[in-house]
Fold this sequence. Notes:
The protein is an alpha+beta fold and 290 residues long. It has 11 helices and 11 strands.
Amino acid sequence: MISALLERVxxxxxxxxxxxxxxxxxxxxxxxxxxxxxxxxxxxxxxVVFGTSLALIYLRGYLVPGTPALTKRYFPDWLLRRFDKxxxxxxxxxxxxxxxxxxxxxxxVGTDGTTLDTExxxxxxxxxxxxxxxxxxxxxxxxxxxxxxxxxxxxxGDGGVGQLARTVGVSTDRLSLSDxxxxxxxxxxxxxxxxxxxxxxxxxxxxxxxxxxxxxxxxSEFPVDVRGQLLSGLRACxxxxxxxxxxxxxxxxxxxxxxxxxxxxxxxxxHCEVRYFEAEYDTVDGAFVD
Length: 290
């Protein structure tokens, strides 16, 4: 009976991995203030109020109705972003560090500690080429064919888990994937490794990593985060969907989370709607958000 009552009170969309840290912090602060006020009159009742408030926050994710709207309205964006520790947020930050290779240069650290120009590197290894108007870059045709062939093989096999195991140097039985809406997260035991916009984006990264490993002698020497930035840049250049052959369009749109709204640049298939790339973008300043 008690467990049934708890389930009726519990709000799954606001607790567990869906718990919003800013909303929780606001409600705990409110509970603390209420406890102090009541505790001045009656310390025992104050303790009851505090315990009940914490229980409600634990079960429901919030104490005051409308908390997400209040948090969004009164918390500055920089503070919400600091609080936002979800896997999706980590993925956005990783993607935001990857400048779209189709429109600008990205610099990161190479194997010897020197600065590496991401776009120039991908052009040098034959993964990208300058477009006909020389103002942009695109996938090099032979690389695209080899890459898409590997993607097909991974989609018919383990989805890329084996390649991820080789990348991080562990056995496949220590790795797992979990779905979060359309996105997918990779885990090493209970530790979060990364999150991709879709299982197809994950397979694309694993296939590109295998192809680049065959083409580039030093590929395995790059740090994992550097390889991730290079692979994200490649995905941003996909113009033909590896799944259905449809056109992949690059555009901006608004995304709503529990207590935030933000603009993203996304590469999405216009036919099957698979998303291959997404990064938070400041439409006012015209720059990716770190």
